[in-house]
Amino acid sequence: PNFSAQFITNLWTVDRIGHSETGSSITFGDPIPHRSHTAVSLTGSGTMSGGTGSDSTTFANVTEEGDVGIKLKVLDVMEPAGTDFARGGVMIRESADGNAAFVMMSVRELGGEWFMQTIFRDATGGALTAAETSAAIDFPIHIGLARNGNTFSSYFSEDGREWELFHSMILDMDSSTLAGVSVTSQGAGLLSTLLGDELLVDTELDFFDFAPLAGDFDFDGDVVGDDFLAWQRTDGTSAGLTDWQANYGYLKGQSVSEVSGVPEPTAFIILLCAMVMMCQAAPRRLLTLSTARHQ
Question: Comparing C-alpha atoms, which of 174, 176, 168 is closest to residue 151?
């Protein structure tokens, strides 16, 4: 859908989560379709640190229901003098409460260099955790985040057209969420500014043009024994087992065509498959026996 510039601006709320810094603000460039703007500048304060149960951040967001994706071309993060731990990026959050569950695909500075990092809190009041951190990056960089059911996936791209999966996780979150952009200065009373372009929030997720590898049931970019255990917990179908067997041995960074040279799953794992099948069939047999005894 197309929205007028005024309507788009009215959709966005700037939440000062965990702080009261009055200098927080957001400005947009010329609007384009799908709640998108050619440019965005978000200024704010806050601190988000690993292990903490509550956040302090400046979060500009719109309310979404169900599946949602957000992407942003990060041009720069301008931070105050004397600090070198600022963070900015895109976030999907259960609420504006400081201790709310969330997932964030961010860029942050460490030791004078910038890195991509996915961070999350898996439940209200839980500890903030870093899921994955990249090697050092240069700006500009395109980052994205998508919710598909209870699967949350972060992405990156050099050109904004070909996206690569960065990290994916399963997280139980309310269907109604806040999606937007976030910035922290990592210093009380200090302000950082996230400068971005090509901001897009939409319920259509095909702009990432990415499909997880068949058999990768824990969404970590490889198909190994751990995925068999994840298959048991989350899938359990014969089709899923076939996918896992076909791509067993795929490792992150490897082309799928290279998997053909990897040995088949070990006899032990195949035995596990058989045991799972037997366990799935056992309740039906017991039910049949029990019914027969009462006839």
Answer: 168
Q: Which range among 46-60, 194-208, 241-255 shows the weakest confidence by mean pLDDT?
A: 241-255
Question: Terminus-to-terminus CA distance in the chain, angstroms?
Answer: 62
Q: Tell me which residue of 142, 200, 144 sits closest to 1, measured CA to CA.
A: 200
Give the model confidence (pLDDT) of 20-36 as tens digits: 888 888 888 765 444 45
* Per-residue model confidence (pLDDT) at position 252: 54
State the DSSP code for 104. Answer: E
Region of residue 38 (left: phi > 0; alpha: psi -120 to 50; beta: else):
alpha
CA distance 75 to 141: 7
Going by the DSSP 8-state scheme, the letter that residue 47 receives in this structure is B
Pairing assessment for the beta strands 57-65 and 13-17 based on DSSP bridges:
antiparallel
Phi–psi pair at 65, nearest 5 degrees: -120, 125
Residue partners of 249: CB distance under 8 A and separation at least 6 = 223, 224, 259, 262, 263
Peptide bond into 140 cis (omega under 30): yes
Convert the pLDDT of each residue in 89-136 to its tens digit: 999 999 999 999 999 999 999 888 999 999 999 999 999 999 999 999
CA distances from 276 to 228, 235, 288 (A): 11, 12, 19
Q: Say yes or no to pLDDT of 225 above 80.
A: yes
Tokens of 87: 């963070």
Residues 164/172, Cβ–Cβ less than 8 Å: no
Q: What is the pLDDT of residue 58?
A: 94
Residue in the block written with tokens 């269907």: 175
Please identify which residue in the block is written with the tokens 């959709």. Answer: 11
